[in-house]
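2024-03-11 09:14:02 INFO receiving multi-entity request
2024-03-11 09:14:02 INFO entity count = two
2024-03-11 09:14:03 INFO echoing inputs for audit
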Amino acid sequence: MGKRNTLVVLSSDEEGDRSLGSNRRCTKSKLSLTVPRINPRRSKKARVSGPTSSVSKEFCNWDEIRLFCEDFDEKFIGCKLSPGFGRSIKKDLWVDRYKPRSLEELAVNKKKVEEVKLWFEERLKTSEDEFRSCVLVITGQAGVGKSATIHVIASHLGATLCEWNTPTPIIWQEHLYNSSTGIHYRSKLDEFEHFVERISKYGMIPSSLDKDVKSSVILLIDDLPVTNNRAALGRLQNSLYLLVCSTQIPTAILFTNYGEADSADHTTRYLEELQLSLESAGACKVAFNPITHNSIKKTLSKICRQEQHNVSAEQIDLIAKASGGDIRHAITSLQYFCFKPSLMHSLSASNPAPTILKEKPDKVNIADSGFSLHFGRDETLSLFHALGKFLHNKRETENAMELDRDEYFVRKGLSRLPLKMDAPEKVLCQAHGQARPIADFLHENVQDFMSEEAISDAWVVASYLGDADLLLATFRGSFARYNEVENVLQSAAASVAVRGVLFGNSHPLPPGWHAIRRPKLWQIEQSSLRNKREIVKRRYEFYNGSSSSDVTVIATEYTPLLKWLGYRSPGGLETREGNEKVGESIDGMSLDDQESLVSEDEIEDW
Amino acid sequence: MLWVDKYRPKTLDNVLVHQDVAQNLKKLVTEQDCPHLLFYGPSGSGKKTLIMAVIRQMFGPSAEKVKVENKTWKVEAGSRTIDIELTTLSSTNHVELNPSDAGFQDRYIVQEIIKEMAKNRPIDTKGKKGYKVLVLNEVDKLSREAQHSLRRTMEKYSAYCRLILCCNSSSKVTEAIRSRCLNVRINAPTEEQIVNVLEFIGKKEGLKIPSGFTARIAEKSNRSLRRAILSFETCRVQQYPFTSNQSIPPMDWEEYISEIASDIMKEQSPKRLYQVRLKLYELLVNCIPPEIVLKRLLYELLKKLDIELKHEVCHWAAYYEHRMRLGQKAIFHIEGTVSGEKNRALVKLRQKAWL
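2024-03-11 09:21:47 INFO inference complete, emitting structure
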């Protein structure tokens, strides 16, 4: 739409400013074509330029209507009324079609719902008598039914739900146009601040649409503006604080918790900070847990019944498991699943496989990994978690051995007990591990996890890590252009490193607390590079300055000698001292780093 | 000034070791038709000295007036421009550079920079177009690609410039380059030759040298003339009226490595491996090349090991040395060796205990 509008705008601008005659007709047709779609703001501009252009007169009336609409809209900007929950059958998404309409239908834990409901009831009844904080903070993962709960409770209590809707984003072309007309860009944060200010001053103005209904109002803030820096966070915090302190309407603010694996992101940390500040301002907090397996199953099977799809309990079970407590996801998966008959066949065809493997304790894992390709949320692991898995090297105890032995014969010294985790490659994938850092980390830390006597293990591990390094090094040269090759090599190297560590460490230490160190190698490399640069600078000191000498020669022959001599030439000594200082500072740094890392990334026994 | 520099022969006639090579080179240069040259041989054998003398022979004393320049080169590589910083040492007639300093961008150096240098060649007094001499050091450290483009550059600009390549081992220089150059192998001087040189320096310095002392230095020097002269000077500083049994100070990193070796022999456990790793890091920080570390370590270990183990240890050291060159991070491979060695030492110890 934006594109089209700009086109129109350009032509009308030209029309107004320059040409009156020649291209009038064509613009006219264009304009008349696009009038129904025109944006009110744009038409305002057109109206301004109206007198000069006879064309725009034609749709002046139209403008007025639109302008009226715009004013009307502006009144309700940011505050959309959601008129009940008329469930239209036409909606195709099951998520929408089977939106919970009553408290009973909610899959959320009953106690939690009751808690929230009580809170709202209290606020709605006694909002005038006493001063109490009117803000409820609801946290939880995505898809645990936070908004749905509020919606249902609102309709249950007969309250009107006012929702803060983020204004639609402005695209660049629109912005360019707007700025030329003098309309300033307002960020989402600006709008939100403005909204909060209005709310706190005037309260919620009951919607003009249904004036007759004298119902109570619940305000729902679902989508907080995204903040990317400190200043923006501060502003958001202030406006939220204002909201908490001043609002008379029961307000629910929803926070979506992201997985802990993503917590390196600033945004999540900011969100946590916001929650804390809200709580300290007096807001109540209710945390929603992921929806339980059983209630997801119940909901899914109900939907199946209503849709008259034949889905076996086992399949529902799988879907529920794969969704990880996210009911929205589960329902979408179910719809997708029922939508594709071929998929169902493949599922039922492959169904016998897991049943055969029933003896295996990790049957679910196998089944899971098979189907999560189609639906289900991919879980992420943090790098340290994954490293911990590899280093601790937990394995099954004896009993599971027999199964493997049937398949093919492995020499006794080479066979290992089955792993107590997913395939290492899968773990790597979940941790988004890159081969190089993984190999470095393993190299740095693996010795700490070996028992005291196991020097031959250490050798095996070292040689496997060497293999991995070899694989990683090859792509540096000739293959660098081919991404494919590089990727294959990378993952192969990671796999070799990880599996080498898992295989080689056949006598791991009993599980316990270990700190994972950051590879010292990185620092060593850096400082050796720096030293090398120093040496390169000095390479013209020898040979009477008429030739240059090899770095190797300087490092191995001249420097020790000069050090030994305490050589008279001041230049030589100084650089040497400089080098040593560099080395010392590096050592100091590394120690600090190590300590901080120890405190940060404590690897406990998983 | 260090003695190594002070007594370095300046002309091909003054050379003390490799006199035959020097005479041949002189003949070659004076007959005007000088091919590309590739000098190779172990460190401390006098390659650089010979190269400098050859250049002086070609251009006279003006070749000694050199200036060090640090230039940034802009190289057009496809769609982008790459800035490469490189230090060169140049006189009017020759340029010396270390292309391997540019790391993985060495390819552009040998392609573009040499091309550029070859373009503006000097004109000699008779108005005849002369040629420039390009001295490339550490050719064996060039990447494959760089060596390949060097080959092409050599062919294209052979009329305008002569290349003098210098490296330790010709085995890492591609066949194509080797066949386009006159290969000059510079052997390590024999101990006798080293003794002669040391006596010569001693006489010039007016020192009284007890008999057998220079022989001891020569023996310790591992047949590296530079090293011999350097340690000769150290001894001079340490204690002048030389005594024939005066100790010859070893290099600090060598001592360090022998310490590591005894660590390895003392106890074999992952903990100890970690300590050894820290020591190895220390060496690497000081830019001791990993190949040398590995070689020295093997040497020290061989001194301590039983005869039956020696073969195996050598085998694995060679294996890991090769892989280290292919690989990226030397420490992984050194460690492979170290742990392997430890393992075998342990096995040996166990066997002994069993018997």
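2024-03-11 09:21:48 INFO post-check: Chain A has 27 helices and eight strands.
2024-03-11 09:21:48 INFO post-check: The two ends of chain A are 53 Å apart (CA to CA).
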